[in-house]
């Protein structure tokens, strides 16, 4: 499965130990409305690079942590301009109730986090 490959790329090497250069924050919430949502990687041309780079910060200048492909699903947590802070899988995120924050803005920690360009994400649902 491709998603497993992404995890191996992100966590098998030094990128896991180095973490993000720019942290990802979940917005404040009331515990009733979703504070993030699920998106799918979409629109990547097979003849192009064929992947969406997962980076350590919101910009092409940041380190590449891994690759995502058409059809991969991610949790969108934070937006900064055209860039989106995502979790590749909630399994590696340490915060309970991700997407149902019942309090102030908070920094998200754990594995499976990174930044991608939002042009290649299709929002599916909260």
Structure description:
It is a single chain. With 126 residues, this protein is mostly beta strands. It has a single domain (2-125), classed as SH3 type barrels, CATH 2.30.30.40. Helix content is 12%, strand content 34%. The protein has two helices and nine strands, in the order ααβββββββββ. The strands form three sheets. Strands 8-6-5-2-9 form a five-stranded antiparallel beta sheet, with no helix packed on it. Mean pLDDT is 85; it is low at 4-17.
Number of strands: 9
Biggest beta-sheet profile? 5 strands, antiparallel
Rounded to the nearest angstrom, the radius of gyration is 14 Å
SSE pattern: HHEEEEEEEEE
Distance between the termini: 25 Å
Task: Give the domain tally.
Answer: 1
Could you name the ranges where pLDDT drops below 50 across 5 or more consecutive residues?
Answer: 4-17
CATH architecture: Roll
Can you identify the CATH superfamily? SH3 Domains
Which CATH top level class fits? Answer: Mainly Beta
Determine the mean pLDDT. Answer: 85
What fold name stands as the CATH topology? Answer: SH3 type barrels
* Protein structure class: mainly beta
Briefly, what is this?
With 126 residues, this protein is mostly beta strands.
List the defining traits of the structure above.
126 residues, mainly beta, SH3 type barrels, five-stranded antiparallel sheet, 9 strands, 12% helix, 34% strand
């Amino acid at each position: 499965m491709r998603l497993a490959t992404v995890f191996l790329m992100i966590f098998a090497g030094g990128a896991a130990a180095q973490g993000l250069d720019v942290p990802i924050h979940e917005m404040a919430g009331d515990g009733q409305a979703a504070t993030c949502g699920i998106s799918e990687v979409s629109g990547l041309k097979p003849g192009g690079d064929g992947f969406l780079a997962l980076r350590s910060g919101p910009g092409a200048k940041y380190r590449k942590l891994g690759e995502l492909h058409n059809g991969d699903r991610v949790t969108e947590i934070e937006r900064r301009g055209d860039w989106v802070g995502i979790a590749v899988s909630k399994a590696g995120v340490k915060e309970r109730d991700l997407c149902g924050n019942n309090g102030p803005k908070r920094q998200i920690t754990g594995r499976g986090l990174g930044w991608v360009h939002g042009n290649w994400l299709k929002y599916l649902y909260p």
